[in-house]
Amino acid sequence: xxxxxxxxxxxxxxxxxxxxxxxxxxxxxxxxxxxxxxxxxxxxxxxxxxxxxxxxxxxxxxxxxxxxxxxxxxxxxxxxxxxxxxxxxxxxxxxxxxxxxxxxxxxxxxxxxxxxxxxxxxxxxxxxxxxxxxxxxxxxxxxxxxxxxxxxxxxxxxxxxxxxxxxxxxxxxxxxxxxxxxxxxxxxxxxxxxxxxxxxxxxxxxxxxxxxxxxxxxxxxxxxxxxxxxxxxxxxxxxxxxxxxxxxxxxxxxxxxxxxxxxxxxxxxxxxxxxxxxxxxxxxxxxxxxxxxxxxxxxxxxxxxxxxxxxxxxxxxxxxxxxxxxxxxxxxxxxxxxxxxxxxxxxxxxxxxxxxxxxxxxxxxxxx
Length: 368
Ligand code: F6P
Known about the structure:
By secondary structure, this protein is α/β, with parallel strands linked by helices. Helices cover 46% and strands 16% of the residues. It has 12 helices and 11 strands. The chain has helices spanning 16-29, 40-46, 82-94, 106-128, 134-139, 165-186, 201-209, 224-240, 264-275, 295-314, 336-351, 355-364; strands at residues 3-8, 33-37, 52-54, 99-104, 144-149, 189-194, 214-216, 246-251, 279-283, 322-327, 330-335. The strands form 2 sheets. It has a 7-stranded mixed β-sheet, with helices on both faces. A 4-stranded parallel β-sheet has the order 7-8-6-9, with helices on both faces. Helix 6 crosses helix 7. The chain is elongated and about 75 Å long. It starts with a strand and ends with a helix. The model has no long low-confidence stretch (mean pLDDT 94). It binds 6-O-phosphono-beta-D-fructofuranose (F6P). 6-O-phosphono-beta-D-fructofuranose binds next to loops. Residues 11, 105, 151-153, 195-197, 252, 289 line the site of 6-O-phosphono-beta-D-fructofuranose. The active site is at residue 153.
């Protein structure tokens, strides 16, 4: 009988609960015991029954649509250190766990990948220090890990969608619909900041879905002069056709070509100074991350939870750790290490201002 642990890590995302629910029930269906690690990697580092709890079928009843993550999440500094991972290794063995499924963003999955790569050394160290017996060493020599991608940012390579991104997008669109009504009434302009960290997916998709007048994303930096002219031209044209409101969406990671951030206040100043528009700034903040999961995220998280349990059960010491993604509407199993590497290469290319490379790297994943 296998003992599988599931954890959520990094920023919460709608659909994480649905993912945990599917993992718990699918694992039980396949005659495994399943444990929830509470509070992300902190729970693994702290260990014990307070943090690592066995889950039964009924424990996840009603979780399918719930936002956030009921088993808690955290960004854990200790797990970034080797001593923290050594503690986590010991705690897992003490709880009898031999496989781990992590639902989180790229940082959390990078941690998972490192943990698996280091596992043989960690467990050997526990044996050498006589903290575990020879028998225990042989029982837990290999750790199977699988990642499912939970993040509202949709910033992970090798998957078309991350769990939570469409719920967040839906929330942003609703918020902009509300703002539209008041903007239209007063003939105002609104500059709206949306989340996404270094990725412009949420901002771009929201701008398209709400017919915003202009959008700023990190993937397309421009100089202040260039964006000011371009934005004012677009907004003036829309106004000249009788549009009573102006909506400009700014991704929180938006940057100009000298890599300085483009802030909502910068954009507001241009709209006021050059076009004389009565302008307000709205930062949507964490409402974008809360609330129930939309149908797509419930479905994605459920199918990926089932696929993740299959993946850890089929894993062998020689197979690389998988990440469950979705590509062209199919649930796919990718190499976690490749997805993490590609995500980091895209980020590096953006950092180096090599935007063509960033775009071609991002495209490459869809044309394997
Ligand atoms: O990664 C998810 C995310 O919501 C980002 O979009 C945002 O930049 C960040 O987390 C906010 O982090 P925190 O909740 O720690 O303020």
